[in-house]
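Ticket closed. Logging final result for ALBINO3-like protein 2, chloroplastic isoform X4.
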Amino acid sequence: MASIRKMSLDGHPGFDSGGALWFQNLCDLPGGSFGPVFPILIAGFHYINIQISFDSPTIRQTTGLTGLLMRYYKLYLEILSVPLFFVGYAIPQGSLVYWVTNSSVNIFQQLSLKHPTVGAKLGLLGQGASPSVGHSMEISESVVKYVDSDSQEQTLSLQTLTPEELLSLSVQVLSKGDKETSIQLLRLALEKDPGYVRGLVLMGQALLQKTQLAEATQYLELAISKLLDGAPSDAEDVELLMLASQWAGAAYVQQGKMKSGITHLERVANLKEPGDPKSKEHYFEALLLLSSALYKEGQSDEAAKILRVVVDHNPAYKPLLEQCEDENELVSDLVSRRKDHY
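Final structure:
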């Protein structure tokens, strides 16, 4: 811009007659009845560019000191539109032609990049944004459409989402009862990262809910194998191991494979009781499943031991414990009578 301004001021060859319409001489300052055209365009395009640049969910949702500074900065840039109008009268028409052209192209570029179709073609969708809980979503084979908190429709390409973002979408979809779409998203996440343990565990859970037990156990067994290989130590890995073992045990029990189910459920019983209330509920659910499996296998003594731990946590299960203990007493009486008989 500085080069063009210098050429205009120095009367570069051709600038005196290289214009068009009312701006034939590019070395002249704007004047006459059409003089305000370029200053108005410059000020107007500057204002429009500011509105487009700051029309972003990330900027709108920014709070605190950063959000306050951004709002004041936007206001400052908007106020600049007024002095720019007057500055336009002091700039040669050659520079004004360049300035207006540059600003208009910038507006077109920003609007184009915000358009879902253009963004999808350029692989830009899904970067820096993803729908969150509460958004209305519509998922097709390649994109997810949702309405954001500002009631604006957004479109993301599934191919550009990370495995973590795909898993987050899958959880939201599964919570609404759409198991098919949830599994579709999880498969795509695992295609991107086959060793994604959280994805393997949630895939097993989703398939378990669809009663696809054999396939569910495959994913859960793979997740358990990876967790045990890594010797889980942090709370997240321990929780994943607990959930994977619980759901694998439940899947095997439902298939009638009691020994395999008990093996997985006993792994949960050997873990330390978690402190987090939600994790604690999962822990005792696994113990309840284990006691049921042991009882069905005729190991009522072991089942009673597990049930006592469960009852200490939740007395509502005391009738189950009493039933189990009554059967133990009945078996003991029968054994004693047989001894006396012999």
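Residues 297 and 331 are 15 Å apart (CA to CA). No further action required.
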